Amino acid sequence: MSQTLVTLAVFLFPLAYSPGPGNMFFAANGARFGLLATLRANFGYHLATWLVTAAIGLGFVTTLDLFPQIFVALKWAGSAYVFWLAWKLLRSGMLQSDETARPASFSDGVVLLLLNPKAYVIIALMFSQFLTSSSENRLILTLLITTVFTLNNFIAFTVWTLIGDQIASHFRSPDSARRLNMLFGGMLALVAMWMLIS
């Protein structure tokens, strides 16, 4: 079982650290508000990650197989949500002052995970590779895989938040901060378009 978990960690590393909706969201929030202010959303995202991953590992993936339109709906809703996040960042980059801005909340993190089709694909792929119907201690293995996946992503998103915060430390003037918000907003918009066409 320990060999499976080590192999899983190696498998997950490039998936967690490559750009995607979650990574860009947390990098943008880190740039705008810093690590501590972004932790609530990170905890929300990863509580939802753990619950969704456990549900898929325990059989929810069968529901997605039986009703593929659920996945299509998630893809469209997720893309729309990421576009909305991008619009908020782009708009804040256009405004002269953004005193109403607030860090992402716990519930923002939950919604981002629930509407992120990339997460469902990775979770289903992960279980197809590391869990079989003949696996011993299937429940325990499912919960271990779920926990390793969640912790790996939490660390990756924390790293992306810190990267965003470090980038922003070089853009503290109001004009450069607005340009940075527009850059991250544009990147999120590109991710949303990628979500629609992939």
Automatic annotation (TrEMBL):
Keywords noted in UniProt: Cell membrane, Membrane, Transmembrane, Transmembrane helix
A Pfam family the protein falls into: LysE
MF-aspect GO terms: amino acid transmembrane transporter activity
Annotated membrane topology: Multi-pass membrane protein
Source species of the chain: Parasedimentitalea maritima
Transmembrane stretches, start-end: 43-64, 71-90, 110-127, 139-160, 180-197
Protein name: LysE family transporter
Location(s) in or outside the cell: Cell membrane
GO cellular component, one term: plasma membrane
